[in-house]
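Let us work through a complete example step by step.
Step 1: write down the sequence.
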Amino acid sequence: MQLVIRRYRPSDKDAVLVLFSDGILEHIGPSFRNAMTQPLYLVITLGLSAVGHHLGGGALLCALLLAGAWVALVYYCCYELYDSFVRERLRTDMLDIPGCYLSQPDNCFWVAEAEVDGRSEVMGMVAVVAKQSAGEGTGERYGELFRMIISSSCRRMGLGSRLAQTVIDFCKEHGFSKVVLETSSTQTAAVALYKKMGFTLVLTHAQTHAPDWITKLSGVHILKMEKQIQG
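Step 2: predict the structure and record it as tokens.
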């Protein structure tokens, strides 16, 4: 499969929005599995089962109901964390990609295109936005990588590396000092890719668009990574 990386066109919008939504929502399952396999969550599940069993006079149904309610709550938090992110982005920057990413020369949005059964399809995307450090007095300009999504049919084909390198090259050409990005702790493949490309972890936090209790119960952490650009 031959993949071509090019600038976003307005005709790409529908395909890009579908790929974006699908790519973000696929993290719900891994996030839930990661949360429920944590030792603390296993203890809570077993503890609630025991409490339900006791309160129900030995009835298995009560044990299952109480533990099930806890499991359902954790799943809801994982689902809402990612689903609400999609809803928010679809009504903000992803609603107007040209205005947000292509109206300024230091920003850009790319898609990866391939021909499938005689027609062109969008298989990946990535964007970069120019930023400037505040409060340091240096005026350091850097690029922030956003919206890296790859179709499941193009995984392990080197497309992620190509898209990330496209951003790095763009930032170097525009005189930026570094490239920064944020990803979630459940996106292990993405984290491994970024590390392989020279990004280092600089900060871990739990500040998301969602309420704190949802982020906390989902067990997801946000990883901030950056790569210095050599002149």
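Step 3: interpret the result. The mean pLDDT is 91.
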